Input
Amino acid sequence: MNDTQVLMAQLLECGNESDLLSVMSLIRGPWAFVYWQKSTRKLWFGRDVFGRRSLLVHFPKHENDVLILTSVAHKPDSASELQDCNVVYEELPADGLYCMDFNKRNSYPMVTLFAWENSHLPSADTTCSDLPQEFSDTNNTTNGFPMRIQCGAKLTSNIPPVNTSLPNPEDTDWIMRMETNLQQLSADSANMCDYVDSSLSSAAEELVQVLSDSVKIRIGNQVQYCQQCITNTPRQQQTLIRIDEEPRRDCCKDEKLSVCLEHATVKCEIPCRRAKVAILFSGGLDSAVIAALVDRCLPAEEPIDLLNVAFEQRQSSQQQRKPAACSNTLNTTYDVPDRLTGRIAVQELRSINPGRTWNFVEINVTKEELQKERATRISHLLYPLQTVLDDSIGCATWFAARGVGYLVNTDGPPKPYTSHARVVLVGMGADEQLAGYARHRIKFRYANL
Output
């Protein structure tokens, strides 16, 4: 049973708004949903407090127009097409849950916002006046389409408090002292703990534990088969991998399985030996830490796919400081910074755990392929987002998730390889959360911000 079935079963038991809000408040992690509650003739839709899942909306502009909710939309191919397009989408704000009441057949729908509370984020303070223009018109006209709005009860968020205060002078002195100590570290330092006081060491251990628990939850609830053989495996044998749980054999009813389907890891007669977990692996700190944490959580015999994406770089011979006679030739290379750091990082992982099979997958993307997939697929998946950063992250993520490249291991030449992993982990956001960029250090050093 997947998470959608579990959620649907809970929603079907909801008899009123309070029950539904309670169910949605229990969800931890990213989500976006549209739910038609037939018994009450109400349409519910919204996203998690961070807006981590896509949900686009087209607001009706006139009486003959309609409200459209979708996770993916077609991007207009040109400015003229955009101008002629009657359906324009935008991201639904992650303000809470929206509810449209269709009980009164001869009147326009009432929209109720159940805004987030206790999330300590800007969206938690949403009021009716903060709503999108299409929903905030209290005079019953929205670009020619009447729509009424009211604010309902608050939707509880499980996001813990976020520190919004500035450090005091004592904290500032301590941080600057720790930075000086860390700068004294050299490549042959015997122990980093010699330069770090106990409070920072304790905080680091707590952070590692929190990250480990998060990774364990994500990879510990999946069936023991890859994408390729999942369709060929009987349903009764598609069992969750349970990490750090003792098997119960006293209640197993299937003789083909070594342990109970409902309580522990299943070891079938012909287990799948392909990687079920992959990591978008640039070799940077984020992805390397995620890989090390996955290594701690997965059984030793489970391989891990490290997906390293590189976009084609073309340089003339003159750019490479070769004789001018060859200046008209172009040389293609995929040895971009992420590729070089990825190769170094995978060697480090192999030295840490040589018993693990680390599949370093080099995904080489030509300019022609990038242009084709960007135009036909990726730009539409990103729409309405279209900044350079959106495009850069979106392209890298899409090609990594496709998993088609070359397997580069220590033995033999690269081989064509397609990852069949069912879970792909991405180490994005750590620098933003932990102030890892150089600009953060500069701002803190000169302005204590």
